């Protein structure tokens, strides 16, 4: 019987979740975009209201499912449903926003449990207009008790998205590896 | 990969060979194959971790490797062997993995020919990583002047930022890695020199990508003197691999050291990576100021065999689906 | 929700259409009109429901339903009916060219599905006619 594994892509509106999934999905992703009326929040024309869905075939007939979460907190019911049983979460930030950390705040809190149980990685949209450095994100995360990797990425590039996934997998693997060791401190 | 040659002298001389942009497995395979060739090639070949070698084998799909080769070829300094060549590439200096001995012999002999008539072999000396670490540890140092070819800039050890005449993109970093780097420590008495360089070095930014690359490629297989083999270390934070590129070995070591302080031996054992890879990783992390000695006294890790994964090998299959091993 | 959205017509007219639906169908107890991106536009209710929450849920579910239809090659427009043990939830698309909307009707378990659908469609038609 084939099994399903899922990875979540989360983060505020306009951070590139739909783009990231399209960059790595085997086939064109299924999207649930609606016309964006909240121009004050983000100027893009379309926004995800259900979830984006892509998938990657694995050896042995299993599938890796990629779910892109809607960014606005009014859709947090989907975040909760999707978190159950996920391998981890790729959190994307939009560094061109006036206050990128405030935007990230609601999302990060909603996925705290998943991040703690499995893994989280943060991708910060690359670009000259960025207001904050990678260190600012790292310190902000640390203050909230997260030790997630923070990478500057361009999610239009497949290799950048793979970097995020590779880091996520390495966190899960090494956590399991270390759980199999004993550590005795004097 | 293509072979890049520097300078040759008399026949049967000892030549140094190195590789860049390799999966570590390919590197191990290359070293093993080289060891089998003893006496069967025109020159005698010795493997080195320094890219300042007579011959450089590079992964033609790796951006940093391409940049190094562009640079070294421009300098006419050495010969380059390309790997993995695409199937069309049947050139004299193209290799395929796994390395066949006869093909490698032909490549090396061809490289010897193209090297003949050039200058001397790369000199043995302290690695660039060690020299840089020495300089950064000097007391009351304000900046380190770096000179590579025509470019000169200032590295600020405290903030780990660098001022350079042009933007430090991957090509520029590759140029620094492939060439001789001259270091001069500047204190408060060197104000005039400091100002003179500052006038030219107008682009300022973080030096992390450069320092990481120096640690990875210019460590000469030697751990920095400051790194104690019995000491446990952890990492202060994740480096920004978005800037310096994805290598699975780096991600694995970082993930381990972000979760627990480990000694060099423990890290080698837990990661399952060759010690040369661990050495380069630790040097890179140390140069970037990310390696922190764990002060708590501790008993060594005991690694238990046969711990079962809850994910039943799926992580491995996800890697396969994305070909994530390629950038190891 | 966002202010100054002339696209969706006068709220008063929408509310009268919603109230009329409740009058037409005694088993329906709440009705919410939302934009397809999840913002509440108008509501009418006999029994309190979290209208803003329902607006976001309704837009998501209708979007997922439409995605399923597209995947099956069955167009991209449809309605969603959820029959619970204690009641029914019906989601209808309001295909306004200027700003598509979603109508969410909450009814008791005694509501007859056919009547619910018919009354809700009347309401959708009234909203379209108001434009």
UniProtKB/TrEMBL annotation, chain A:
InterPro entries: Gliding_Motility_GTPase, P-loop_NTPase. SUPFAM superfamilies: P-loop containing nucleoside triphosphate hydrolases (SSF52540). It comes from the Bacteria. This is GTP-binding protein.
TrEMBL record, chain B:
It comes from the Bacteria. This is Uncharacterized protein.
TrEMBL record, chain C:
Residues 15-107 form the Roadblock/LAMTOR2 domain. It holds the Pfam family Robl_LC7. SMART domains: Robl_LC7 (SM00960). SUPFAM superfamilies: Roadblock/LC7 domain. Gene3D superfamilies: Dynein light chain 2a, cytoplasmic. This is Roadblock/LC7 domain-containing protein. It comes from Solimonas terrae.
């Amino acid at each position: 019987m084939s099994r399903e594994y899922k990875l979540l892509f989360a983060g505020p509106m306009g951070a590139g979740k739909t783009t990231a999934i399209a960059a790595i999905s085997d086939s064109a992703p299924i999207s649930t975009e609606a016309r964006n009326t909240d121009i004050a929040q983000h100027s893009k024309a379309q926004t995800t209201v259900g979830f984006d869905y892509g998938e990657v075939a694995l050896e042995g007939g299993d599938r890796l499912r990629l779910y892109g979460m809607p960014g606005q907190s009014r859709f947090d019911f989907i975040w909760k449903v999707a978190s159950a049983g996920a391998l981890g979460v790729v959190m994307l930030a939009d560094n061109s926003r006036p206050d990128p950390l405030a935007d990230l705040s609601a999302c990060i809190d909603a996925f705290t449990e998943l991040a703690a149980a499995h893994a989280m990685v943060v991708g910060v949209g690359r670009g000259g207009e960025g207001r904050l450095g990678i260190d600012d994100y790292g310190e902000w995360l640390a203050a909230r008790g997260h030790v997630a990797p923070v990478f500057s990425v361009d999610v239009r590039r497949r290799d950048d998205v793979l970097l995020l996934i590779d880091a996520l997998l390495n966190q899960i693997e090494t956590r399991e590896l270390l759980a199999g060791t004993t550590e005795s401190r004097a | 990969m293509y072979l890049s040659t520097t300078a040759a002298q008399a026949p049967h001389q000892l030549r140094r060979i190195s590789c860049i942009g390799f999966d570590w497995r390919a590197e191990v395979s290359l070293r093993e194959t080289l060891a089998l060739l003893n006496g069967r090639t025109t020159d005698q070949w010795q493997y080195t971790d320094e890219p300042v070698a007579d011959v450089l084998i590079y992964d033609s799909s790796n951006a940093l490797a391409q940049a190094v080769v562009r640079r070294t070829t421009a300098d006419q300094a050495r010969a380059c062997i390309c790997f993995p060549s695409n199937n069309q590439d049947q050139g004299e200096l193209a290799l395929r993995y796994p390395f066949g001995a006869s093909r490698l012999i032909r490549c090396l002999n061809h490289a010897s020919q193209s090297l003949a008539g050039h200058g001397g072999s790369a000199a043995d000396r302290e690695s660039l990583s060690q020299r840089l670490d020495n300089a950064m540890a000097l007391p009351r140092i304000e900046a380190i002047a770096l000179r590579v070819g025509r470019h000169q800039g200032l590295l600020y050890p405290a903030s780990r930022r660098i001022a350079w005449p042009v933007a430090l993109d991957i090509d520029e970093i590759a140029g620094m890695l492939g060439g001789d780097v001259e270091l001069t420590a500047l204190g408060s008495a060197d104000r005039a020199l400091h100002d003179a360089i500052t006038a030219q070095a107008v682009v300022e930014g973080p030096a992390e990508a450069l320092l990481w690359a120096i640690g990875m490629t210019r460590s000469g297989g030697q751990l920095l003197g400051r790194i104690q083999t019995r000491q446990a270390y952890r990492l202060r934070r994740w480096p920004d691999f978005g800037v310096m590129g994805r290598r699975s070995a780096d991600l694995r070591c970082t993930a381990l050291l972000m979760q627990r302080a480990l000694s060099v031996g423990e890290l080698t054992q837990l990661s399952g990576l060759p010690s040369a890879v661990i050495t380069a990783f630790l040097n890179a992390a140390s140069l970037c100021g990310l390696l922190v000695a764990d002060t708590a006294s501790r008993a060594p890790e005991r690694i238990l065999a046969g711990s079962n994964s809850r994910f039943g090998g799926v992580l491995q299959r996800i890697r396969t689906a994305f070909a994530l091993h390629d950038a190891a | 929700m966002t202010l100054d959205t002339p696209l969706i017509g006068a709220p008063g007219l929408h509310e009268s259409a919603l109230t009329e639906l409740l009058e037409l169908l005694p088993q329906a107890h709440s009705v919410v009109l939302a934009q397809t991106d999840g913002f509440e536009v108008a509501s009418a209710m006999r029994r309190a429901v979290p209208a803003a929450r329902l607006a976001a849920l309704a837009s998501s579910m209708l979007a997922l339903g439409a995605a399923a239809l597209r995947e099956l090659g069955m167009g991209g427009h449809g309605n969603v009916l959820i029959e619970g043990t204690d009641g029914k939830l019906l989601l209808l698309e309001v295909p306004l060219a200027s700003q598509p909307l979603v109508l969410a009707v909450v009814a008791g378990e005694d509501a007859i599905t056919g009547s619910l659908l018919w009354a809700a469609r009347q309401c959708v038609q009234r909203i379209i006619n108001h434009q």
